[in-house]
Amino acid sequence: MAEAFPKVKKIEYDPKSRNPLTFKHYNAEEVVEGKTLAEHLRFSVAFWHAFRNDGHDQFGVGTRQMPWDDGSDSLANAKTRARAAFEFFEKLGVGFYCFHDRDVAPEADTLAETNKNLDEIVKVLQAEQQRTGVKLLWGTACLFAHPRYMHGAATSCNADVFAYAAAQVAKALEVTQALGGGGYVFWGGREGYKSLLNTDMGRELDHLAKFLHMAVDYKKQIGFDGQFYIEPKPKEPTKHQYDSDAAACYAFLQRYDLTDHLKLNLEANHATLAGHSFHHELEFAAAVGMLGSVDANRGDLMLGWDTDQFPTDLYDTTFAMLTILKAGGFTTGGLNFDAHVARESFEPVDLFHAHIGGMDAFARGLKAAAAIRADGVLDDFLKQRYSSWDSGIGADIEAGKLGFKQLSEYMLKKGEPAPNESGRVEMLENILNEYI
Ligand code: XUL
Ligand code: CO
């Protein structure tokens, strides 16, 4: 096969170069806090945006030039597309990719034929992974595009649709396992509702939990040892999705006894759609020990939908890396660019510019976060701010030694609490700016 990107060579790190097709900050080999940048950041390309999204929007057709792709849904085209994708991963220098089952192989008239198509493509993906060393960060199933999923998949009112989704996920798990995938993502694309008038919410929540338990059981049956993730998103395509944010997912997983089996895959744009910052979602997940992986992108705060832009905001990447480093870094997870080029960025080279920008932005975020941690500026402040809990009454409360009765006696004797100290919000913001 002819090269898909003949005009682009391997992207190198060259901080002095004026060539936009070089990394200015992402030096894969550089070591920060004992690990290389590549080991920390674990960049992944999202197959669906990079190779299946032609740039169409609600008002216009696709614009992207993808000369390797004949536009058909044939198996031959799927194979060529897969090879083009690996050429891209290799030239970009990422270690990982992610896909939905239907991104890589065409859906046929029957489930059996569709599964056969997947098996054919898995052979190509296996060979390409072997050739390049690029790995599968996670796999997933598309349970939202086909009309059968109009009412949802695991939360459909139609029991046969639930069964079909189960069969589809079973196959997607097998495929992910065959490719040595590090994990598997559940994103409830239509697991929510358009109208409460036609929705039995309690029943749908029970069904979703049942579905996830079946997946956990199947994972054990086939011996797949990858990490399961659930990806929060509050809306779009539905009006409300049950996995609306990190805290809602955590409550759901707790209620249905699933916290040992799934971690969170947090997406920046989904956080902002939920009315939270990306940083908030990561901090919450880290605080409850559920931080698994990240879909790295950016929304537009002026717009109310999932714009899936490439991450270039250095505050966002610094905050994200502060939390990720604090939580001990990624184990199975990574930074998956769930992002697409703008409709007007239609040339093949734009795919490189977009990913290079995201990788450099996260490299800068990582370095800034590591410098902040090395200097201890935020940690020292935090330690001091909560120091009343380290000894005396605070330590006794934390240790569970006291109740309201003892605290009443303590305060009646003591009078007013010790004077408060300033939270120094602006000073901390100024300090942060010195590192960015
Ligand atoms: C949709 C989204 C998905 C998931 C995987 O908003 O983020 O692509 O990441 O299904
Ligand atoms: Co996503």
Describe the structure.
There is one protein chain. The chain is of the alpha/beta class. Helices cover 46% and strands 11% of the residues. The longest helix has 28 residues, at 348-375. The radius of gyration is 24 Å and the shape is globular. The model has no long low-confidence stretch (mean pLDDT 98). D-xylulose (XUL) binds at residues 100, 140, 185, 187, 231, 233, 267, 295, 306, 338.
Strand content: 5-15%
Q: Largest sheet, if any?
A: 8 strands, parallel
Q: What structural class is derived from the secondary structure elements?
A: alpha/beta
Number of helices: 16
User: Which geometry do the CA atoms define?
Assistant: globular
Q: In terms of per-residue confidence, which ranges show pLDDT below 50 for 5 or more consecutive residues?
A: none
Strand order of the largest sheet: 7-6-5-14-13-12-10-8
* Beta-strand segment tally: 14
Q: Name the hetero compounds present.
A: D-xylulose, cobalt (II) ion
Topology (SSEs and partners):
Blueprint: E1 12-13, E2 22-23, E3 31-32, E4 35-36, H1 37-41, E5 43-46, H2 47-52, H3 75-92, E6 96-100, H4 101-104, H5 111-132, E7 135-140, H6 159-178, E8 183-186, E9 192-193, H7 201-222, E10 227-230, E11 240-241, H8 246-255, E12 262-267, H9 268-273, H10 278-287, E13 291-295, H11 314-326, E14 335-337, H12 348-375, H13 377-385, H14 392-398, H15 404-414, H16 425-435
Helix pairs in contact: 3-5, 5-6, 6-7, 10-11, 11-12
Bound molecules: D-xylulose (XUL) and cobalt (II) ion (CO).
